[in-house]
Amino acid sequence: MSKTNIRVRHCQCREKCADEKSRRVCPPGCSHRDRYQVRRRMPPDGKRKSKMFASYAAAERYLAELEGEWLDRKVATIHRQPKTLMTFGEVADDWYGIKALAWEPRTAEENRRIIDQLWKPLMGDRRIADISKDDLQRLIQQWDREGYARSTIRNRIVNIALPVLEYAEKPVRGLTFPAESRRSGRITDEEVVAQGLYLADMSELRTLLNAMPERYRLMVEFMALVGTRWGETVPLTQGDIVNGMRMSIHRAAKRATKAEDPSGYRIGKPKTHRARMVAVPPKLLDKLRDADAPRDALLFAEDDGSLVDRNRFSKAFREARKALPDRLARLRIHDLRHSAASMLANGGAPMKLVADQLGHADIAITARVYTHVFPGTVDALMLQMNQAVTALGQ
Questions:
Q1: Do 212 and 158 sit in the same domain of this protein?
Q2: Average pLDDT across the chain, whole number
Q3: What is the pLDDT of residues 51-71, one digit of tens each?
Q4: Would you give the distance in Å from CA 170 to the centre of its chain?
Q5: Residue 72, Cβ density class (10 Å: 0-12 exposed, 13-18 middle, ≥19 buried)
Q6: What is the pLDDT of residues 223-235, one digit of tens each?
Q7: Are residues 214 and 168 part of one domain?
């Protein structure tokens, strides 16, 4: 701080000092109390700040405040630097630091790995402003030629690069992705439902249950009739049974390495991060309820009382589905969820009820996936309208 920004003001009194022309400053007893003037041109506009003070110390404090404000504005200006002038690696780190707070640990680890091992070597040192849509499109084409499945390409591009560019206020739209790779053999939920790759009625469910090992039958029956996800079903306990006809779904078992947890699972929140209540057939709940068991006793468990092992269950499920019709030769565990939705729809349940039962975050998901299983409801409505048309004709 320069002392030249503070000066003693010249006497301008018209009383005591008026006749003393030679006196350049106010004497100690002058009625002019504010003797010290702060004059400082402040960047960035160069405007002059001027103020009078009675003491030199007060003038110094004010000048320090001015320069502190200027420094704060300078720092804020640096932080307001457009993100497009930053490198992709810097912006990706900032974006990850914010988004990772809401991710599951396993998701955060995977996205961190993709950023560090894939994107930083590719574009880590390039400025956001220099990255174009054509750059990303060429990468998509390159990975497609190298044999990556479409889902892998989308996960690498859509889930990482595009949100980072969006965060940097340089959104990219209109990328073209390759068709589903035949090598992956994967089909969407919409295609599963459209092709009827789920248990259509109770007879098919009975056939599957009879082919499953006895210790897993109740779990299969529960998922096929209630529609819970695998991860939501595994950690259910006696304490989750509510009022004899409802089940509270507020936890989910996530796959984990043995190093993370010896059970192979990590218990966290459901997929949508929201708890829900699901309806359960009373007779099925009677099979699950054990009045003598503690509230934390598992509803479904291995013979030793531990959480159901996914690998053992999957192996038993693959063997059991061989007893089903040929169209169900590739039935998945997740398709038991589609079976429940189909049975609810064919029973006349409205789409909103099905969405609540399955725990969809948006009813639009239910409408998109299960459009094909609601024809019975539409037909019933058409019959009602047909009666109205008949009445109009009379």
A1: no
A2: 80
A3: 777 777 787 787 777 767 666
A4: 21
A5: exposed
A6: 999 999 999 999 9
A7: no
What is the full DSSP assignment across 270-338?
Answer: -TTS--EEEE--HHHHHHH--TTS-TT-BSS--TTSSPPPHHHHHHHHHHHGGGS-GGGTT--TTHHHH
Same domain, residue pair 269 and 284: yes
Q: Which domain holds residue 376?
A: 200-380
**One domain, residues 26 and 60:** yes
Indicate if 215 and 314 belong to the same structural domain: yes
CA dihedral 106, 112, 118, 124 (to 10 degrees): 170
Each residue's pLDDT tens digit, 19-57: 555 545 555 566 555 667 777 665 555 566 677 777 777
Residue type at position 300? F
Q: How many of the other CB atoms lie within 10 Å of CB of 244? A: 10
Give the CATH number, domain containing residue 125: 1.10.150.130
Collect all residues with Cβ–Cβ distance below 8 Å to 229 and sequence separation of at least 6. 252, 270, 271, 334, 337, 359
Model confidence band, residue 315 (pLDDT cutoffs 50, 70, 90): very high
For residue 372, being part of any structural domain is answered with yes
CB of 277 within 8 A of CB of 270? no
DSSP letter assigned to residue 157:
I
